[in-house]
Structures are given as structure tokens and as C-alpha cells.
Specification:
Lipocalin; 3 domains; alpha+beta; 8-stranded antiparallel β-barrel; 40% strand; Beta-lactamase
């Protein structure tokens, strides 16, 4: 596998395939390569039919290629043996001889018309694939399609399997067409229900500029929201989404590279949340991953650059109900000390307000006197605001 590699957008192959998608009218549109580094093991390798055939041949021969061991035989046997049950895998009326749905190590395992099949499919922006082999029949099949979410890999795999295994003809195309029609009908019904759930003529609770900022999730990373004219935009490292107002504080992201994708079948929603001060401090990204708790992106305080001499006006001791809180400098960083607590590093937010770096929901706001120096400070906390006058 000498040309198989990672990150196709970094390569210079003359015959590198381009990816495409179809819209709801089956018109074809080009798609850019998906920058997959963040989840590389799920599909970062790009290859060719010839080199994928070498890979499948290695598995069929128990880990050997041209007589040389590439993978330990013990590992190969374990990887293509059942390690867990995916679902019941019951035979259907259409396919009574296709059943079993187990998982090995990176392989889907099934009984296909009386033959043991090891397979794994894949979909990434603009491409669909299926890699399959029948270890007891010495047959391997690789189908690569440059169409997004295409049913072709599974269909073509089955047609080839039937011919090579000398099985009676089965119309896989008709089965997939029927399933597709049912799925579209179900989606239309869901869209109607979604339209009924949508509350018309509602407004966001805040001005659009109040939603703007940097939001972060520990697993999914950072997303930036920006307000421009009458719209909100969501920016990731590679994609920009327009946020269509759905209702109240819920918006629907629309990929600007797929303008025709605007429709009621879009399952994604951004539901904004406010803190005790009434400020937008997070959003839930609904539809991003099923079966898990809400995926919450928290607003991140963005520091405003302040020179050391600008910070000096805040220094001093402040009487907090008989307890002296102290603001002092540690290098070029403003620190706040309350007796009996750790020294807190402060992050400047502008307008004489600072956020506690390690305490979520805690901040301080300084009041300036006629001399331009701080005369008081208010500790803004989830349990209330507490004012301290400079001593």
C-alpha cells in the first residue's frame, strides 16, 4: 500500500477522486474534503482499489500477504470473531437467509445467505465505501463511491457476492428503492410534525449581538458565533453555518456550502441558555449525537489585553463586610485575595470587569472615582452581588 495516505487535501495526486452529494431533487453538487484529523481513526485513510485489494487479501490469508506475515494470525482470528452483539439481526421476509449482527474488532459480522461475512462500511463528506470479505470462501470485495451517503456500496457488494458465490438472483436495487421511499415518507411525516411544533412569530430573547462570542465543549472544541446585519453565523475551523431563527431562543444551523439544504428535515438545533444575570452563557447543540446527554457549549471569556500600568488603578484593599479583600499584581496579572481563600487570577473582560479564571459564574466590576482610580468593587456571584468600598 504505497500510495495510501492521510489528508487528501495535502496530496498532489493527479487522479484523486472528488466527492459529490445529491440534493432532495437528486441534482449533483461537489463537496470539499472533510478535515477529519479530530477523529482520524474513523476514516482518515484514502486509498485505491488495488491497494485495498491487497489489504483484504491479507485478511483472507490469515494476516499474510505474498507469504509474509503482516498481522499476527491470532489477532486476525480474534478480530473477525464475535466480541459483542450489535442487535438481534433477525432474518426478514425479504432476506430470510441474511441474518446475525455482531461486532468483532473493527469488523461487522453477519451471516449472508449461508456464508460468513466480515465487513465494514463508511461515509464521509462526498464518499461512501464498503470493504467486505468471506474468509471461508476466499472472496474479498471493495466498493468505493464518490457520492455522499450513497446506497451503492452495499448494493454493488451484494450483487458481486451473489455472482461469485453462485447464489440465486436477488433484486437488491428494488429493496433499497423501497426502503428509500419508506424513509422519505417517514421523513415527510416527521417534517409535518416538526412544522406543527414550531412556534410562529416568536423573537429571540436578546439582541443578536448578545449571542456572539466563543463557545467551547471539551470534546468537540471551540465554535465562534458572530452577528452580522440581521443574522447569526456559526464558525468552526472549516465550515460556516447561517443560523436560521426557529423559535424563541432556538436556531437551526444551515451549512452555507449547501444552500439548497434549507428544509424542515434538518435535525440540528442550537438552544441557547442564560445565566443568573440573564446573559447568554451556553448553547445546547441538539441532534449532534443521539443517545447521550445534552452536548453543551459553554461561553468562554475572551480576555481584553491590558498593560500593567492600566491595571494599577484597581489595586488596593476593599472592605467586604469587615473582611479586607485585596487586589494586587502578580507580574502583569491582576490577582484578588479574599482571606481564607486561594489567590484568584483575574481575566480582564473590558469596561472595568474581570472574570475569575478558575471559578465559573464569578466576576468583579470596579467603580472608578473622580481621580480615575477604583473606589469600590462589586463581587458578582451566583448567590448575589456584594459591594466592597476601597479602604
Amino acid at each position: 500500500m504505497k500510495t495510501s495516505n492521510f489528508a487528501p487535501w495535502k496530496g498532489s495526486y493527479a487522479d484523486l477522486a472528488k466527492g459529490y452529494r445529491t440534493d432532495d431533487k437528486d441534482a449533483i453538487h461537489p463537496m470539499d474534503y472533510y478535515r477529519i484529523e479530530g477523529m482520524g481513526p474513523a476514516g482518515a485513510i484514502y486509498s485505491s482499489p488495488a491497494e485495498m485489494a491487497a489489504w483484504v487479501t491479507t485478511w483472507i490469508y490469515g494476516g499474510k500477504y505474498q507469504g509474509k506475515e503482516v498481522l499476527p494470525e491470532s489477532y486476525v482470528r480474534q478480530a473477525m470473531s464475535s466480541q459483542m452483539v450489535i442487535n438481534a439481526g433477525l432474518p426478514s421476509p425479504e432476506n430470510p437467509d441474511a441474518y446475525l449482527a455482531n461486532y468483532g474488532m473493527g469488523w461487522m459480522l453477519s451471516s449472508y445467505r449461508g456464508h460468513y461475512r466480515v465487513e465494514h462500511g463508511g461515509n464521509i463528506d462526498g464518499f461512501s465505501a464498503s470493504t467486505a470479505f468471506y474468509p471461508t470462501d476466499s472472496i474479498g470485495i471493495v466498493v468505493l463511491v464518490n457520492q455522499n451517503g450513497s446506497p451503492l456500496p452495499g448494493m454493488i457488494r451484494n450483487y458481486i457476492s451473489d455472482r461469485m458465490l453462485k447464489l440465486p438472483y436477488r433484486d437488491w436495487h428494488a429493496q433499497i428503492q423501497t426502503a428509500r421511499d419508506k424513509a422519505r415518507a417517514a421523513a415527510a411525516g416527521q417534517n409535518q410534525a416538526d412544522s406543527l411544533a414550531r412556534k410562529k412569530d416568536t423573537q429571540p430573547s436578546h439582541a443578536l449581538k448578545d449571542y456572539a462570542g466563543l463557545f467551547e465543549h471539551p470534546g468537540y472544541g471551540a465554535l465562534r458565533l458572530a452577528a452580522a446585519q440581521d443574522s447569526l453565523f456559526l464558525h468552526s475551523s472549516h465550515v460556516t453555518f447561517w443560523l436560521e431563527h426557529y423559535h424563541y431562543d432556538i436556531f437551526r444551523p444551515i451549512d452555507l456550502s449547501e444552500a439548497d439544504a434549507i428544509g424542515e428535515d434538518n435535525p440540528f438545533r442550537l438552544r441557547f441558555q442564560t445565566n443568573a444575570k440573564g446573559e447568554i452563557d451556553a448553547f445546547v447543540f441538539q441532534g449532534l449525537q443521539d443517545g447521550v446527554k445534552d452536548i453543551v457549549f459553554k461561553r468562554q471569556a475572551e480576555a481584553v489585553a491590558m498593560a500593567q500600568n492600566e491595571l494599577e488603578k484597581y489595586l488596593g484593599e476593599y472592605d467586604l463586610g469587615g473582611v479586607l479583600a485585596k487586589a494586587y499584581l502578580r507580574g502583569e496579572t491582576l490577582m484578588v485575595l479574599v482571606p481564607g481563600q486561594p489567590d484568584y487570577e483575574m481575566v480582564p473582560l473590558g469596561n472595568h470587569e474581570f472574570k475569575f479564571k478558575v471559578l465559573e459564574g464569578f466576576s468583579v466590576r470596579f467603580d472608578l472615582g473622580p481621580d480615575g482610580k477604583a473606589s469600590a468593587v462589586t463581587f458578582i456571584q451566583p448567590n448575589g452581588n456584594f459591594r466592597a468600598v476601597k479602604k
